[in-house]
Structures are given as structure tokens and as C-alpha cells.
Design goal:
The complex is a heterotrimer of chains A (572), B (247) and C (146). By secondary structure, chain B is an alpha+beta fold. Chain B has nine helices and seven strands; from the N terminus they run E-E-H-E-E-E-E-E-H-H-H-H-H-H-H-H. In chain B, the strands form two sheets. In chain B, strands 2-1-5-3-4 form a five-stranded mixed beta sheet. A two-stranded antiparallel sheet of chain B has the order 6-7. Classes of the chains: A alpha/beta (572), B alpha+beta (247), C mainly alpha (146).
Chain lengths: 572, 247, 146
């Protein structure tokens, strides 16, 4: 029996974007009921692991124009400039709001909010809370959201399908992980805020929950995914675990050295110019791989790596600005950064691509919105600057919340009965999958094969051949999900069925990433294709749109909104 | 890497088929640098997919993976296997009702958490703030430590009062209430203190200090609670002199 | 104090949507380290409670005349009272020392313009004061001074 509940706006995902959208929605209309459906308790959302900071103009020697230009250039001119303009204007207001709500931003002596340098930023504009900014922002947002009775939470509910009727989204089918029962959580608009999909790759800073669920949900309903080929490799992750070592280490003056002790970002030409360690992430990741390929990296049990050297910063500076980094390095690689350099290598961190939305967070499916990493607005274009994404979650999360509220007011509720029947069909589908042996494929093996295919075909450097192979491999792996031998037939808190559903979602995302990458015959931002090593504006200054198709996805183009800044050569 | 084996005695419980929790034993190959969580994930992926456990970030910041490891409440993503001998017992957190296997009931914690009003309460007559408040580094230091709680609930698992007093708000909730009381931007100490000195509040704590011992983030909830007790008594006494409506 | 958790420990106000197993008590309770000192701390309450009866007895004797008072004082020589007072002394000392453990934790990071003193300062000051006061009282009661 499917339980039906009715709300006005339904938000899927309880991280920074989802919580900000929920707060914006109830503030826009305190009478409405906003459902927040998350597969984990909101304070477990992966926003929590962000470390370095959130960017907004704060100093007198900075300007909205400068932040805008840095972001446009960082995006390798693929970011939509109207989106970027709105973002840089709203950023200071949003971060100030968070301060009012209790976020413990680090301070200057005079009591104003402190800022630090960050990659690709001309001046200091990254607000920070020591080196646990995502943790503090998420907890501030979550605790603040508890003030509003209008926000109704569905914790540990996994959305398996969007409920669409008469061409409009009217709610979600959500599996209550605790009871194993399906619920129809209905609303007149739905906002996806489910984050990225790093777990498609084997080495990632991302946690277990980053499986691209929202992207797959939209993709399956015919909504295109935009710019999926652009996957950000964060230059400094720990080898093996992939745990993030924040860019703030470099912002506070850390050096990156190869096996010869050389600061190769300074001594060799990797395009970062004087910015050296503070260059944009895509260039630094390529530089590290360049050193690896040239045989100047260290060998380790988890592959090759370089050194992130903080030893010259001193214990006092590290304990005051980077205490979490010290804890992570000590706990997970047994290195105390006060005395020894940290082993690091590029790992998958962020998806610039995602559900195609316009500047108001709207998708092509009426009633469906998206914000945060799940969406591609596109703020970040082909490469994201560090510390822009947390602010993006706030700016565009709020915007989606407001617009989804407006849409809900003008929209029809749809029929409870017919929507319940759709959810009941979903319930039947899940019940049939639970514990069923439809073949002899092992879940972890299929997942591992997907990871390996993506690592080989969509790494820091890509080749036409390896990308084509990745497309073929993913196409072969996808149907194996229908032959999984599932062993857990229980209903209460069955995590195997969740893992199987997440695997299906990840394969959709993998297909989109590999296919989009294969047709972009240029190098731009994070997409570095060895066969076409330069940027090709005349042919490729456009977004890619991937539409789900059978047997292959269909790829189309979408124009980039240019503006104040003309595309130029991206040099630092 | 050498193939070492360890034996894991893991609590299992499915409410639809088990009357009470039981244990299952798994012997698996382990690597020297694994954490306990890596072993559990290996068991789930390769040996017994029906094992349910919570985890996510694997870097000790999301708070999902708290469990009893050889009788101590630990974050399994942060706890090295090399600390243990050939047999490791993994059980769900103590003091919590058990939902399934290693997964405990969290709704009780969520309710207690909300009771202390963990948000900035503005002063009643204050005009809306333009931009940000000024807050000196010293003022930030007054509450910063107490804001580091990742809600992992290890402190609840260690607390003897939680075991014996069902209304007790608990270390994390009380420490969070104290964090807001200490924040120079907050004006809700009076309101919050009423809740915190009520039944099951601060004064149910009799300082076993286990919470601070097991806290993986050095929040020192026991310190927060003792400080809050003193602050609360002063607040209560001055409330007779300065009626409600002042700070 | 019991060696099991109550079955309603950490319960929520609403009934759980699926059947849950009873909470387990913290392991090693009450036998280990901090738990043991916590239980002992609670146990001093029994001694204090008994001491309170003594005080009531003394007050009653005060009001009942000199002979009643002297009888009461004489009764203190009885071995069981000596044993009781020995336990009481140990218990109260334990109570004081444990209080000194708690006390530094009650101090906020700043008191007006002053930063909080270090833990060593507290340890030395409190325990030192305890030793000095105990010695003084022993000397006074023993008749060596005053």
C-alpha cells in the first residue's frame, strides 16, 4: 500500500543546495508545505566534506567584475555569462545571510569576515571557516532549516522515479529505506539537489552517496544532461582513498613538488604562469599527470604521486588555518604535514556538467527544477574555480526555491489516484528486484568494471580511441544490471537494493559522460583530448546536450550565452 | 601486500526474521592500512550483501559510521584495523534501539537535537542587520570548539545517564545548545536555558566524562555541559532581577 | 545503577515504524575506568545521606539536654561508628577530589578581560588548597594549634 502525501514543492536532496532551496521556498510563501526528501539524514550530505571556502567579493581591492571575469576565464569561456553575472552579484549577499544564520566564518582582527586566496582567483575572495567550510555551512543551513514548520523532512527516503503526468512533474516515488515501503510524495513542482556522481570513477574525493541519482532521474524522463564531458579532477587527493586535501593548502602558501623536489609548476611551463600553485584546477591536474608521465613522480602502492609541501608554513599557521588537513594526513596516510610533505595525486572531485537548467533553475520538463552540483546552469562551463560551488549552491538553490514556489502556485496538483498508481507500479518493480537472482552478476564486480572503464576512457587526458572504447564498454555493462544476483530479500533497511538502484543511476551518468566526451574534438577546460590538444572556438564553443536514447544517446548542441567578456586565449 | 586474515564477529538483526540480535562471524583477508569500515565494505561486497550499515564520507566528517568496535564507540572510517588483534567485534551503537544489523534508531536523537533550539535567535527589538555581524577572533573562540560536532552520536553511546534516563537530552544536544548560547550573535540564551535546565536537561548530567573521552572531534561535550550548568544558574538567578525581554 | 540500558533509552516520541531491538548498555559498564569513578561518585551520596541522619540525631540530642548529648558523643567510640566515619572521610575526600576534576570544566574560556587559567594551574591550586585546609583542620582538631 503506497502512502500518499501532498505538498507544494518537493525537494530531492538535503545538502547545501537542497536546504537553501527549502529555506527560500518557505520564506517565499510561509503557507506552503515543502517536502525535503533525502536518502540520508541531511547532515550526512556530501556538502559536509568540502574544506576550502566559499567565494564572494568582500574586499575593497576586489570587484564584481573581477570575480565575474575570473569565473568566465576559469570556465574556459564555456560558462554562460548572464548566469555568472547574477552569481557574482548575489554571492556576497548569500554568504552574509549564512553569517547571520550562525555560520562561524573565520575572522580578521577587526571582526570582519576573513578571506583567503584560491586557485584562479585574482585576489582574496574566498570566505572560510578554518578548513571545514562545507561542514559549517551544512550544519548552519540544517539547523536554521529546523525553525520552519513548513519544511517536512523525509529522511532516508530514496527517490526511484519522478512522477510525471500530463507532461508536468507532479511528485516523486520515494522508497522509505527504513520500512522498505514506497511513498508517493506529491507536489506541484520538484527541485533536484542531489549532487554529483564521483562514484562513477574509482578514485574520487566523493563519498558513497554521490551516485548521480538526480541526473539519472531527469535523464530518464527525457531531460537532457549538459556538458557531461567536463569532469573536474582535483589536483590534490590522497592516493588510495582519494580523500580531499583542500586547495586552501596552496592558498595558504603550500608548494607542489615532484620526486626531484622541484616546484614544477614554477620551473616548467604548464600554462599557470606566475600563479604557480594557485592556477586553476584543470591545469594543475594536467601538470601533475605530466610529471607522472615524464617519470618524475614518486611510486607508491596506490599508483604514482607528487608531494604537497606545507613544512615551511609552520605548526602555528597549520593549526590555525588547516587543522583538518593535518588530521586527515595523519589519520589516513600517516604523515604529519608540519614535518613531512603529503603524498597527493589528481582524483575526480566535481561534475561541471549536469541537468540542463536555465538561469532560474528550470528544466525543459515543466515543474522540474535543479540546483547545485546536479545542475548545469552553466556557471562553471568547462572548469570550475575552487570555492565557487558552495556559493553556487546558495545562489542557485535560493533561486530554484523561489521559482519552484511560483510555479507551484500556478500549477495543477494532478490526480492523487493516478499518481499513486504510478508509485504502486514502482513499488512492484522494486519488490520484484529485492533479493532476486536474475542472473549471476555480482554487484560489486559490475560497479568495478564501470569504474575501470571510466578511469581508462575519461581520465585527466583522453584519447578518441579510449573514449570510444569507454562508450562501448559502458553500453556493454549497462544491461548487466538486469542480470544481478541480489542476495538480500529483507525489507527493513535493505541497503543492497539501494546499491543496485544507485548502480543503475551511475551507469546512466557514465553513458552520458563517455558519449559527450567522445564527440568533443577539442581540448577545453577539464576535457583534455590528446588528439585535439587545442581549443576550437569556431566549431566547439557550445554546450553539449545528451539525451537518453536507444541504443545510443543522442547528442545536440546548445549555445553559450556570451556577454561582457569575449573569449580569448586562456593564459595565466 | 601480505595476505593477513582477521575474524569479524558482527551483530545481525532483521526485525522480520529475528527475535533479537544475533552475531555472525566472517573471516576475511585484510590489508594493513585498512580501517574497520573497509573490512565491513569488503564483507558486504564480497561475502554477505545482506549486511546493512551506514557510512558515506569515509573521512570522519559526516558522522554516519559510528559503531561499537570491541566494546568501544568508534567511527569505523577512522579506526585502524591494526589497533586490533585477530578478532574484531562490531556491534551497533550502545544505548540506541537497533533498527537492523549495525543501523540504530536516530529519531530520538533528532528530537533532542531540535529541543535546544539550535539556531541564532535574534534580539526582539533589533533592526535587521546589514551585511555581517562583527565578531572578533576571541568571540569566535568562545564557541568554536562546540560547533565542531558531527552528530556521530558516539557520546550518547558512551553516556551512562543516556542508558538510564530516557528523557536526557544528551551530550551532543546540550553542547550544541551551549554553542549557540556562547555565540555573540545569538540573543536566545534565556529561552534556551529554560529548556536546558528542564527535566532531562543539563542537571541530569553527573559528569562521567565518557562523552568527551569518545568524541572523535574533541568537542568536549562534558566541558560544554559543565560550563552551561554554571551559566544556566547565573542566568536563572539574574532572571529575577532582569525580567524576560532583556538579553 | 543497573548494568543494562533501559529499554526506552533514546526513544523518540512517536512509535518506531518498524520493530526495533532493545538498546544495549555501554560495554564495560560499570566496571571500567571512568564508569567506575562515576559510580563511586554517585555512591558517596549514600554516605552523605547516612551522615545526614547523624546530624539529625545530634540535633535531637542537643535539644534533649546535656546527658543525652554526652550519651550521643560517647556512642561515637563504638567501632561501627569509627568504621562509618572512616568511610565517610574517604568518601568525602573522593567527592572533593572528583569535584576538583569537574570544576575546571565549568570555567568559560574568558571571564571578563581574563583568559581562563591552564588546567595545571587549577590542579595545583585546588588540590593544594585541599591539602593545606585538611592539614590545618587536623592540627586544630588535634590540639596542636588554637
Amino acid at each position: 500500500m503506497v502512502e500518499v502525501s501532498r505538498h507544494d514543492v518537493v525537494i530531492v536532496g538535503g545538502g547545501a543546495a537542497g536546504l537553501r532551496a527549502a529555506i527560500a521556498a518557505v520564506e517565499a510563501d510561509p503557507q506552503q508545505s515543502v517536502a525535503l526528501v533525502s536518502k540520508v539524514y541531511p547532515m550526512r550530505s556530501h556538502t559536509v566534506s568540502a574544506e576550502g571556502g566559499a567565494a564572494a567579493v568582500a574586499r575593497d581591492d576586489d570587484s564584481i567584475e573581477m570575480h565575474g571575469y575570473d569565473t568566465v576565464k576559469g570556465s574556459d569561456f564555456l560558462g554562460d555569462q548572464d548566469v555568472i553575472q547574477y552569481f557574482v552579484e548575489q554571492a556576497p549577499k548569500e554568504l552574509a545571510l549564512l553569517e547571520n544564520w550562525g555560520c562561524p566564518w573565520s575572522r580578521n582582527e577587526d571582526g570582519t569576515v576573513a578571506t583567503r586566496a584560491f586557485g584562479g582567483m585574482t585576489t582574496k575572495r574566498t570566505w572560510y571557516a578554518t578548513d571545514k567550510v562545507g561542514f559549517h555551512m551544512l550544519h548552519t543551513l540544517f539547523q536554521h532549516s529546523m525553525r520552519f514548520d513548513g519544511i517536512v523532512r523525509y529522511d532516508e527516503h530514496f527517490v526511484t522515479k519522478l512522477l510525471v503526468e500530463d507532461g508536468s512533474v507532479r511528485g516523486v516515488a520515494a522508497l522509505d529505506i527504513r520500512t522498505g515501503e514506497m511513498k508517493a510524495v506529491l507536489g506541484r513542482s520538484v527541485i533536484l539537489a542531489t549532487g554529483g556522481a564521483g562514484k562513477v570513477f574509482p578514485f574520487t574525493t566523493n563519498g558513497m552517496i554521490k551516485t548521480g541519482d538526480g541526473m539519472a532521474l531527469a535523464y530518464r524522463e527525457g531531460v537532457p544532461l549538459k556538458d557531461m564531458e567536463f569532469v573536474q579532477y582535483h589536483p590534490t587527493g590522497l592516493p588510495g582513498t582519494g580523500i580531499l586535501i583542500t586547495e586552501a593548502t596552496r592558498g595558504e602558501g603550500g608548494f607542489v613538488r615532484n620526486a626531484d623536489g622541484e616546484r614544477f609548476l614554477v620551473t616548467r611551463d604548464y600554462g599557470v604562469g606566475k600563479k604557480a600553485e594557485l592556477g586553476p584546477r584543470d591545469m594543475i591536474s594536467r601538470a601533475i599527470i605530466g610529471e607522472v608521465n615524464a617519470g618524475r613522480a614518486f611510486d607508491g602502492p596506490y599508483g604514482q604521486y607528487v608531494h604537497l609541501d606545507l613544512t615551511h608554513l609552520g605548526e602555528a599557521a597549520i593549526m590555525s588555518k588547516l587543522p583538518f588537513v593535518r588530521e586527515l594526513a595523519t589519520t589516513y596516510v600517516g604523515v604529519d604535514p608540519v614535518y613531512e610533505p603529503i603524498p597527493v595525486r589528481p582524483v575526480v572531485h566535481y561534475m561541471m556538467g549536469g541537468v540542463d537548467v536555465d538561469i532560474e533553475g528550470r528544466t525543459v520538463l515543466p515543474g522540474l527544477y535543479a540546483a547545485g552540483e546536479v545542475a548545469s546552469v552553466s556557471l562553471n562551463g568547462a572548469n570550475r574555480l575552487g570555492s565557487n560551488s558552495l556559493t553556487e549552491c546558495l545562489v542557485y538553490g535560493a533561486r530554484a526555491g523561489v521559482h519552484a514556489t511560483q510555479f507551484a502556485k500556478g500549477s495543477d496538483a494532478g490526480s492523487d489516484d493516478s499518481l499513486r498508481r504510478q508509485a504502486e507500479e514502482e513499488a512492484g518493480r522494486i519488490d520484484a528486484l529485492r533479493g532476486a537472482s536474475r542472473g549471476d552478476e555480482q554487484l560489486s564486480t559490475v560497479r568495478g568494471d564501470m569504474n575501470a572503464a571510466m578511469e581508462a576512457g575519461c581520465g585527466v587526458y583522453r584519447e578518441q580511441e579510449s573514449m570510444a572504447k569507454a562508450c562501448r564498454d559502458i553500453a556493454e555493462i549497462k544491461p548487466r544490471v538486469d542480470a544481478l544476483a541480489l542476495k538480500d530479500g529483507s525489507k527493513v533497511f535493505n541497503t543492497e537494493i539501494i546499491a543496485a538502484l544507485e548502480l543503475s543511476n551511475m551507469l546512466e551518468v557514465a553513458e552520458a559522460v563517455a558519449n559527450a566526451a567522445a564527440v568533443r574534438k577539442e581540448s577545453r577546460g577539464a576535457h583534455a583530448c590528446r588528439d585535439f590538444p587545442t581549443r576550437n572556438d569556431p566549431e566547439f564553443l557550445h554546450h553539449s546536450l545528451v539525451y537518453r536514447g536507444d541504443p545510443e544517446p543522442r547528442i545536440e548542441k546548445k549555445a553559450v550565452t556570451l556577454g561582457t567578456w569575449e573569449p580569448e586565449e586562456r593564459k595565466y | 601486500m601480505s595476505e593477513e586474515k582477521k575474524t569479524f564477529v558482527v551483530t545481525r538483526f532483521d526485525p522480520d526474521t529475528d527475535d533479537a540480535p544475533r552475531t555472525e562471524t566472517y573471516e576475511i583477508p585484510v590489508q594493513a592500512d585498512w580501517k574497520v569500515l573497509d573490512a565491513l565494505n569488503y564483507i558486504k561486497d564480497e561475502v554477505d550483501p545482506s549486511l546493512s550499515h551506514r557510512w558515506s564520507c569515509r573521512m570522519a566528517v559526516c558522522g554516519s559510521c559510528g559503531m561499537q568496535v570491541n566494546g568501544e564507540p568508534r567511527l569505523t572510517c577512522k579506526t585502524s584495523l591494526s589497533n586490533y588483534g585477530s578478532t574484531v567485534e562490531v556491534a551497533p551503537l550502545a544505548n540506541f534501539p537497533v533498527v537492523r544489523d549495525l543501523v540504530v534508531e536516530m529519531e530520538g536523537f533528532m528530537e533532542r537535537f531540535k529541543k535546544v533550539k539550535p539556531w541564532i535567535i535574534e534580539a526582539k527589538e533589533q533592526a535587521a542587520i546589514e551585511g555581517t555581524h562583527r565578531q572578533s577572533p576571541a568571540e569566535l573562540a568562545e564557541f568554536k570548539q562546540f560547533s565542531m560536532c558531527i552528530n556521530c552520536m558516539l557520546c550518547y553511546a558512551a553516556c551512562p545517564v543516556t542508558a538510564n534516563e530516557p528523557d536526557y537530552l544528551g551530550p551532543a544536544a546540550l553542547a550544541l545548545g551551549h554553542r549557540y548560547n556562547q555565540d555573540s550573535r545569538d540573543h536566545g540564551a534565556r529561552e534556551r536555558n529554560e529548556v536546558m535546565r528542564d527535566e532531562g536537561g543539563l542537571f541530569a548530567c553527573s559528569f562521567a566524562n565518557e562523552c568527551s573521552e569518545v568524541c572523535p572531534k574533541n568537542v568536549d561535550p562534558a566541558g560544554a555541559i559543565q560550563q552551561a550548568k554554571l551559566g544556566n544558574v547565573i542566568d536563572w538567578a539574574t532572571s529575577f532581577v532582569v525580567p524576560r525581554g532583556g538579553k | 545503577m543497573s548494568a543494562r540500558a533501559r529499554v526506552d533509552a533514546m526513544k523518540s516520541s512517536a512509535a518506531p515504524p518498524t520493530r526495533t531491538a532493545d538498546p544495549s548498555p555501554p560495554d564495560h559498564f560499570p566496571g571500567r575506568g571512568n564508569y567506575l569513578s562515576y559510580v563511586a561518585f554517585g555512591a558517596t551520596g549514600i554516605l552523605m545521606w547516612l551522615a545526614a541522619f547523624q546530624v539529625l540525631r545530634a540535633i535531637r540530642a542537643l535539644g534533649a539536654g546535656e546527658e543525652a548529648w554526652n550519651t550521643m558523643l560517647a556512642s561515637f567510640r563504638h567501632p561501627s561508628y569509627v568504621v562509618f566515619h572512616a568511610f565517610l572521610f574517604v568518601g568525602l575526600t573522593w567527592f572533593a577530589l572528583r569535584f576538583f576534576q569537574v570544576f575546571p570544566k565549568t570555567q568559560p574560556p574568558r571571564m571578563g578581560p581574563f583568559a581562563r587559567p591552564s588546567d595545571t594551574f587549577f590542579k595545583v591550586a585546588l588540590n593544594g588548597a585541599f591539602v593545606v585546609v585538611t592539614l590545618l583542620i587536623a592540627l586544630v582538631l588535634g590540639g596542636a594549634i588554637l
